[in-house]
Amino acid sequence: MATVPVYCICRLPYDVTQFMIECDACKDWFHGSCVGVDEDDAPDIDIYHCPNCEKTHGKSTLKKKKNWSKHDTGQSTDIKAVQNGSQVFIKELRSRTFPSADDVVVKLGGSQLTLDYLEENGFNEPILVQKKDGLGVSMPAPTFYISDVENYVGPDVGVDVVDVTKQTDSKMKLKEFVDYYYSTNRKKVLNVINLEFSDTRMNSIVESPQIVRRLSWVENYWPDDALLGKPKVTKYCLICVKDSYTDFHIECGGASVWYHVLKGEKIFFLIKPTSANLSLYERWRSSSNHTEMFFADQVDKCYKCTLKQGQTLFIPSGWINAILTPVDCLAFSGHFVHNLSVEMQMRAYEIEKRLKVKTLTPFPNFETACWYVGRHLLERFKGLHKANKQPAPYLIHGAKIINGAFRAWTKKQALLEHEDELPENMKPSQLIKDLAKEIRLSEIQKSEYAENELLKSQETTLTTRTWEANVWPFDSIFLFHVCFSVLNQTMDSSDEETLHIDTEAKPEVKSRNSKVKKKGGSAAGILDLLQASKQVGGIDYSANSQPPASPSTQEAIQGMLSMANLSSSESLQQPWSNSQSKSNSQSKSNSHSSQAIYPSLESEEDNPVFKSRSKKRKSSDDTPYSPTARVGPSVPRQERPAREGARVASIETGLAAAAAKLSHQVRHIQLLRLKNLCAEENTEQHLC
């Protein structure tokens, strides 16, 4: 039967609850209480000799320490350094004040935290969710506690336990830690932070938030049949006693992390991952005595965020954070890498490699995950391009970062270091080439789309200004804006309709609200526009007709007709001539052209009216519109030759509708002007 090892001068077996120190001479282990060494003093001992070895090797010696701080001068002092995690440190940390995390933490409801929200707003700041409702997360009942963890996971499962005072870790069975947790005399502060339980029975009662499952590379892109198993990083159980402390760190692989407190409370100290802060962090972490320096003292701001029972916190990629547990706490967490933070994830991964940090919560096979994601992005981009759709900008940016990493990992001098994480049946050179091609295609389409949108905006502005300056006189510009609003309303509905232009002679329109007639009882024709224009400024007037409109108003109507390629000499006179024979002869010659199907505004190439407008302006004698110009009598414009194919169906329909709507408005304006003129000349009774 095997004997149990015994230690110390008391010759007792190892007891996890008691502090022990090793003799540098005989290599035996001794209980601190047996040899008179306090646990808090142990880090200051450089060479320790037990009572027996002191006789031959001399007394123990202490370390000479430096008091490092943010404003350190480099000179050593005799002041004893404070070990991060020690009781003195925890007491000082509790007494300090920090900026509130309200300045950086976004507070959302569970149902608000969706993929659409993150795609629109990004995931660059911590997110706090007060209640788990709507998060799609599953948690045990509030009565669930540490003993239940032991039952679901198994008492003999080995766990990594952190000695908070020393900031060191050791192995222990879960049953042993549970016994320590429930003991009334805790001589040490022990902390369990990496109990990954996705392969245990507890997996069935804990589910990560839905947004995490939607984003996670491991959940979505890692093949189930891959030779390398999926990284076990999605579900952690955290069992922390009062005064537990985890020093500042960045999650491995630049992963984002979520925390949900089932019982107790946690305090997070958060530092933004700016370039300056990341450089300071790398320098601090690489220092041999970083456990004696509080990193928050080296940065401009460190925010304090308290996570209470029932709340959930999401920390983005790259954020430097430390965690204090003010009361006994049971919490759950998980790590996830995703497409929203590819650049920061890659940067944190490079820092991690340079530091060669050994952590209790690694992200195994991070590069393998990247290869699977690269293959997914290639197929996704191909599908989007085939459907004539554009990938989201963050996906394009992430693909460029990943493909750049692929090139670096597959270089001849670096391949030996990275080839172990290359997935099976993966052709890296072909993937890099094909993904680069799809990225270039996405950027070209993005550039073309932006240029087209800019051109459309410029054309709309240019068209509006050109019409005002070249077609409309100053006192009729207000008519144009009203017409244009009606025109816009009718364009969409009339682009694909065939116009029927009635060339038969009609009696004079008596109603002010002339109705627009379309084909089959609803199509509009030029006749209505011209008939309406007769009221507001036509060529011929009968004895009983109203007084003609001002020359400027007449020119406005003529300008509208000119843009529709209907000259006043033909379109105004022929259909409305009192001579029946003249009407009949002209109607036959015009019937074919007037009933044609004209191109819509959707085709720029088929619309010479708009294509040549900017060029005409340079050679035109028209004076551009100036709001300060003196208004004078309008000069009749020269007739412009009609061009074949220049008619646009939507313009004709819009002009007809606009003229019909304006006919009674302009008449009303004219009467008001006459009334004002009568009042000024004291001739109101004579004229009216």
TrEMBL record:
Q: What is this protein called?
A: Lysine-specific demethylase PHF2
Which keywords accompany this UniProt record? Activator, Centromere, Chromatin regulator, Chromosome, Dioxygenase, Iron, Kinetochore, Metal-binding, Nucleus, Oxidoreductase, Phosphoprotein, Transcription, Transcription regulation, Zinc, Zinc-finger
Record's family? Belongs to the JHDM1 histone demethylase family. JHDM1D subfamily.
Q: In the record, which residues are listed under signal peptide?
A: none
Q: Which domain of life is it from?
A: Eukaryota
Q: Where is the composition biased (Basic and acidic residues)?
A: 497-511
Q: Which organism is it from?
A: Amphiprion ocellaris
Where in the sequence does UniProt note compositional bias of the Polar residues kind? 565-576
InterPro entries hit by this protein: JHD (IPR041070), JHDM1_Histone_Demethylase (IPR050690), JmjC_dom (IPR003347), Zinc_finger_PHD-type_CS (IPR019786), Znf_FYVE_PHD (IPR011011), Znf_PHD (IPR001965), Znf_PHD-finger (IPR019787), Znf_RING/FYVE/PHD (IPR013083)
Among the GO biological process terms of this entry, one is:
chromatin organization
Annotated Gene Ontology cellular components are: kinetochore; nucleolus
The molecular function terms of the Gene Ontology recorded here are: catalytic activity, acting on a protein; dioxygenase activity; zinc ion binding
Q: Where can this protein be found?
A: Chromosome, Centromere, Kinetochore; Nucleus, Nucleolus
Instruction: Describe the function of this protein.
Output: Lysine demethylase that demethylates both histones and non-histone proteins. Mediates demethylation of dimethylated 'Lys-9' of histone H3 (H3K9me2). Recruited to trimethylated 'Lys-4' of histone H3 (H3K4me3) at rDNA promoters and promotes expression of rDNA.
Record domain PHD-type: where: 5-56
Q: What are the start and end residues of every segment in region (Disordered)?
A: 494-518, 565-645
Which residue windows does the record flag with biased composition (Low complexity)?
A: 577-595
Main subcellular localisation:
nucleus
- Occurrences of domain JmjC (ranges): 197-353
